[in-house]
Amino acid sequence: MRTISLFLLLIMMMTAPYSCQPVEETKPAYFDWDNATLYFLLTDRFHNGDPANDINFNRTAPTKDLRSFNGGDLKGITQKIQEGYFTSLGIDVLWFSPVHEQIHGFVDEGQGETYAYHGYWIRDWTAIEPNWGTAEELKQLVEEAHKRGIRVLLDVVINHTGPVTPVDPVWPADWVRTEPQCTYQDYESTIFCTLVKNLPDIITEQTEEVDIPQALKDKWEAEGRLQQEMDELDAFFARTGYPRTPRYYIIKWITDFIREFGIDGFRVDTVKHTEGDVWSDLSEEARIAFEEWKKNNPVAIQKDQPFFMLAETYNYNAMNGKDFDFGDTLVNYFDHGFDSQINFGFKGDANKSYEELFSAYSALLHDGPLHDVTFMNYVSSHDDGWPFDLERKRTKESATKLLLCPGQVQIYYGDETARPLIIEGALGDANLRGKMNWGENPELLKHWQKLGQFRQRHPAVGAGLHRMISSEPYVFSRRYSKNEVVDQVVVGLDLPADPVSLDVAAVFADGSKLFDAYGEKEYTVRNGKVEVTTNEGIVLLEKVD
What is the distance between the alpha carbons of residues 86 and 147, in angstroms, rounded to a whole number? Predict the structure, then answer.
């Protein structure tokens, strides 16, 4: 058995300062998916690394505010990886909006003319959207992330194509349905329907074999790759024995990204709108592809690492256990290949006290129905109009509750800098998708960085067992023991400015040297206690070996 050592702690602190300055390519000492800190961004709104790719397919029509492409791209993400921005936040995993080629035209969905800047209106699953970059640039992004111990999730969609526009034809009737529109009253009216008007639904339950849409063949031929694509499809169906139905074509296309780029996992969109066995099939093929990639590309970060599947099951609440309730049907998506689900309940639970929140989530993960899986918490996202702290008035509390909560966590770009979620002139979900506010609120950013780095160093924070030590002052411990790794921390919150004595006897022995990673001070345990001083009301105590 071993303990996370101070030597590794100090090395990581020196190479990952609390700033946006470049840092050395240092990997975290230990990674567990159950403690993962994920950073989610909309590629188009994050950072523009190459202005030369800002306009493609004549997408120049005027749109409503924040409903057109703004220039962010894969190269911009890579630049921020290289600068150490994600390392300084303690990020383990990057998730960015889908990279596939989007529809070329725009639609008016009731909130103004809109292009597919968000990435969820796919035209061609086999191509990368040129507004965001090239295959070579995606490859470099993944490589640069892996050098720093950061995994990459690809956002994937099987449920629907992009909308129909004058320049984007509807897919054939044996591929998609265009009606009825979902009413979400039960299982049937949530799955076998279109999510919204003019968003053709892939007929994933199709059992009859179908041909590739002629428009797609014509596109591939014009690009000089028709024969290659058809040969690859022949090889896929020969290997798997799957019928040539819509679901399996798309599964082939998106798992190709694993084989080519070494993608570490999928964030899967609109999970509850497709039958569970679709995801079982995707999971099986994804894991096969991942093992093939690892065999052909031995990389230290992926040794003994399984492929990871995260579900966006809209309105899934971890407090309800594993099942999602359609009203007439219960479905356990964890039984269909998923390792984690996004927890839509956290944004409400975050209004509870620290102890009520932390103890309830720890119980779910250690003694309750989710003890063998996990879930991902968030405070804001790209499509949740009622996030925690919509007006960005509780930004430090957001960080403290999110990053110290049991379970996985998702930071949405700009959570750490209080990027506004209410934007003058914007309509609907465009408010949630503003441009990244680089350089703003540096003191808030430092708060997120300190908590994020502490969480990354200590699997006990997200994956350990929570125990309250005292309510006044509020002090708790977390303990982790897995794979011959033992990790323990003590945290104090809302502490007074005056010196205060904290009882740590149940965690650290007398004479132990402790380091407060928030206040950057050292303490010694005497008679089971440490006397701490803090101007911020927070101490993050870890053992100095």
Answer: 12
Distance set, CA 126 to CA 98, 102, 310 (Å)? 12, 11, 22
Write out the two tokens for 405. Answer: 């909560």
Task: Compute the Cα dihedral for 330, 285, 307, 216 and give only its sign.
Answer: negative
- Ordered structural domains, the chain, with CATH: 2-161+247-460 (3.20.20.80), 470-544 (2.60.40.1180)
DSSP 54-65: S--TT--S--ST
Q: Give the bridge partners for 177, in sequence order.
A: 201
Q: Using CB atoms within 10 A of its CB, is residue 451 exposed (0-12), middle (13-18) or buried (19+)?
A: buried
Active site residues: 269, 312
Residue-level pLDDT, tens digit, the chain, 545 residues:
334 443 334 334 333 433 344 444 567 888 999 999 999 999 999 999 999 999 999 999 999 999 999 999 999 999 999 999 999 999 999 999 999 999 999 998 777 799 999 999 999 999 999 999 999 999 999 999 999 999 999 999 999 999 999 999 999 999 999 999 999 999 999 999 999 999 999 999 999 999 999 999 999 999 999 999 999 999 999 999 999 999 999 999 999 999 999 999 999 999 999 999 999 999 999 999 999 999 998 877 887 889 999 999 999 999 999 999 999 999 999 999 999 999 999 999 999 999 999 999 999 999 999 999 999 999 999 999 999 999 999 999 999 999 999 999 999 999 999 999 999 999 999 999 999 999 999 999 999 999 999 999 999 999 999 999 999 999 999 999 998 999 999 999 999 999 999 999 999 999 999 999 999 999 999 999 999 999 999 999 999 98
Which of 195, 186, 184 has its CA nearest to residue 160?
195
Q: Helix, strand, or coil here: 216?
A: helix
Q: How far apart are CA 57 and CA 129, in angstroms?
A: 10
Do the beta carbons of residue 146 and residue 157 sit within 8 Å? no
Neighbours of 92 (CB within 10 A): 24
From the list 344, 429, 423, 346, the residue with the least C-alpha distance to 385 is 429
Q: How far apart are CA 74 and CA 78, in angstroms?
A: 6
| CB 127 within 8 Å of CB 59 | no
Angle between helices 395-403 and 442-457 (to 10 degrees): 10
530 closest CA partner among 493, 505, 496, 495? 505
Minimal CA–CA distance to 43: which of 106, 129, 139, 107? 129
What is the 3-state secondary structure of 425-479? CCCHHHHHHCCCCCCCCHHHHHHHHHHHHHHHHCHHHHHCEEEEEECCCEEEEEE
